[in-house]
Amino acid sequence: MLEPARAQEAADLVWRHWRDGSAMAALPDGLRPETRAEGYAVQAGLMRHTAAPLFGWKIAATSVAGQRHIGVDGPLAGRILAERVHAADAEIPLAGNRMLVAELEFAFRMARDLPPRAAAYGEAEVLDAVATLHPAIEVPDSRFERFETAGAAQLIAEAACARDFVLGEATTADWRALDLAAHRVTGTMPRTGTHPGLGSNVLGDPRIALTWLVNELSGQGVTLGAGQVVTTGTCVVPIAIRPGDRLHGDFGVLGSIGVAFGG
């Protein structure tokens, strides 16, 4: 097990690469997490580098295709730092971003804490703790030169490829009455046309993904806090982006969201 001082040293190194827009082949021997738990211990150390309360969480690899792409056997949870959150219709700079993709996602804001416990949380219990549902856009990135082969523990350590996040307005529709698995989402970008998506692409249902996140954090002794946002993973095939692009996400009755990309 990584000693706390080593985990923090690894987190500081991840942060420097994140800040500088650089990448590494791997975390050095002695700082490299070997298990998911060690990865989360490193990730927690990123909080030393933010002055704001934690904004929320993302879930990576919520589809079989996404898991195969990055060589993992299940989803990964990552912190979203407040400094990396942008207003809808903002321009996100892409300098230093090596992945260069955008993802359309369902995001939930929590109404109350869900603390760690021995028994697993059920979906109904988790949904009862949700305040609002939002359309969202994530623009991920990695601090590893070959994120496809970095492995789950290292990807968790770098906050599951978190980078930039855009949260749309809370929907005014009665989302609890909808079948989110069957809900269609469409991304449109003038340069590339339309990009269709479906809620079932997110672990079968965005609500299932949210419940997974709650239990993943509970297993690590972490509370999902009131006011925090969980973005549940892409419901479209990640959309290739470049400076000058503008992406519009249409979530039907749930609302819409847009973002521009700069250099």
Describe the structure.
The chain is α+β, with helices and mostly antiparallel strands. The protein has a single domain (52-262), classed as Fumarylacetoacetase-like, C-terminal domain (Fumarylacetoacetate hydrolase, domain 2). The chain is 22% helix and 27% strand. The chain has six helices and 13 strands. The protein has helices at residues 4-20, 36-44, 64-70, 123-128, 152-157, 206-219; strands at 56-60, 76-80, 85-86, 91-93, 101-110, 130-139, 164-167, 184-189, 193-198, 229-234, 239-240, 246-250, 256-262. The strands form two sheets. Strands 1, 2, 3, 5, 6, 7, 10 and 11 form an eight-stranded mixed sheet that branches. The protein is globular, with a radius of gyration of 17 Å. It starts with a helix and ends with a strand.
CATH superfamily: Fumarylacetoacetase-like, C-terminal domain
Order of helices and strands: HHEHEEEEHEHEEEHEEEE
| Global geometry | globular
Tell me the β content: 25-35%
Number of helices: 6
Helix content: 10-25%
* Major sheet size, sense and barrel closure: 8 strands, mixed
Low-pLDDT ranges? none
Structure summary, number of beta strands: 13
Query: How does CATH name the architecture?
Result: Alpha-Beta Complex
Distance between the termini: 40 Å
Structural class: alpha+beta
Number of domains: 1
CATH topology: Fumarylacetoacetate hydrolase, domain 2
